[in-house]
């Protein structure tokens, strides 16, 4: 049984992180995680932008987002703290809101830098938690120790994120709020709803206003982002399962296989079958 299943948290290093981050095809993380970079660089494509991380940066990953690794340097050194949502739910709501907000801000930026001395403290904290998790020594209160050490880590991150964002979570502009709600709604409804009208109505605003705000904040139109999210889902379904293309098209809410193939080819210039063939051994 993995540490994630047994304790609700697991820590990966640069040596085994690619067991969880697929290096050659789009992937969806099974659980949320923090990824810290000590040295080197990694570039990931997420949602509608590329995110480049280098030394003393971190990112928040979320199971609702599909990622694609673009590149990683030879001197890449990292820690990934992967955790189960219910494990963190006992912690304060403020922390959960901070993580959600940090994730949203990350969509608009190229990475989250933080001070080298802060990275050193967090790095040591994570390494000690990993040491306890990996230890084969019998520990009477191992579960409780893991919970408390993970809480220490969470409070460290909450403090760093609060300071880094300078209370801007409570000062989210109306435009940012509109995009935040749009992305949240899209994550939940994209399998059944693909019109800009649906998402505008959810916020009681016009489609023109939603499109304008999304474009100004993200650089892409609302319809482009909807298509990107659906395409990412399609890629993951095609390369991580043996489901027939007809079944994939049905899961994605297309009326038939032809409509799905037309949509897919329009955005990627290859058919679903041709795309899947690229990943066959």
From TrEMBL:
This chain belongs to the protein called AraC family transcriptional regulator
Residue ranges of domain HTH araC/xylS-type in the record? 176-278
List the SUPFAM superfamilies hit by this protein, alphabetically: Homeodomain-like (SSF46689)
Q: Please tell me the species this chain comes from.
A: Chryseobacterium vrystaatense
Matching entries from Pfam families are given as: HTH_18
Which residue spans adopt a coiled-coil conformation according to this UniProt entry? none
Alphabetically sorted, this entry's keywords are: DNA-binding, Transcription, Transcription regulation
Entry's InterPro entries?
Answer: Homeodomain-like_sf, HTH_AraC, Tscrpt_reg_AraC-type_HTH
